[in-house]
Amino acid sequence: MTTITLVRGDITRVSADAIVNAANSSLLGGGGVDGAIHRRGGPAILEECRRLRASRYGRGLPTGRAVATTAGNLDARWVIHTVGPVHSAEEDRPELLASCYRESLRVADELGARTVAFPAISTGVYRWPMDDAARIAVDTVRSTPTRVEEVSFVLFDDRAYDAFARRTG
């Protein structure tokens, strides 16, 4: 069974086999968690992302999918990039958000990762409501068969931490 822990802090400062990046589909960096991971991880991550774009993902990584690269200068072996959905009141997208967590765990299993650190995917500029994002994240991790031993949700602020604590407590 996978242990779930909560960490209040900066995902670029944690130690894990794999750190999940809330990437944009270009895989070439951006704002928020994505920009922070690229900045702290250094140019090796961007180089591998460019190779992925030149080969398998010419049109970008589809929403809900995941792919791994080196972790560069981060305290991890890999970065697993996943593209979360933009929240919409008109479209039913929770399955796409759940897919980010399932696909990231699938990639982690393929890599042999035993510890994985997740941010709160889609809760920044993609505007997913925090309580709903926490519900989807925690329920999906709990229900997904995986060999990952520990999943950490690394949450940047008290609002995110409290929302995830309500789901795990």
From TrEMBL:
Gene3D superfamilies: Leucine Aminopeptidase, subunit E, domain 1 (3.40.220.10). Keywords: Hydrolase. The keyword Metal-binding does not apply. It holds the Pfam family Macro. GO terms for molecular function: O-acetyl-ADP-ribose deacetylase activity. Residues 1-169 form the Macro domain. InterPro entries: Macro_dom, Macro_dom-like. Its EC number is 3.1.1.106. PANTHER family: GANGLIOSIDE INDUCED DIFFERENTIATION ASSOCIATED PROTEIN 2-RELATED, MACRO DOMAIN-CONTAINING PROTEIN. This is O-acetyl-ADP-ribose deacetylase. The lineage of its organism: Bacteria, Bacillati, Actinomycetota, Actinomycetes, Kitasatosporales.
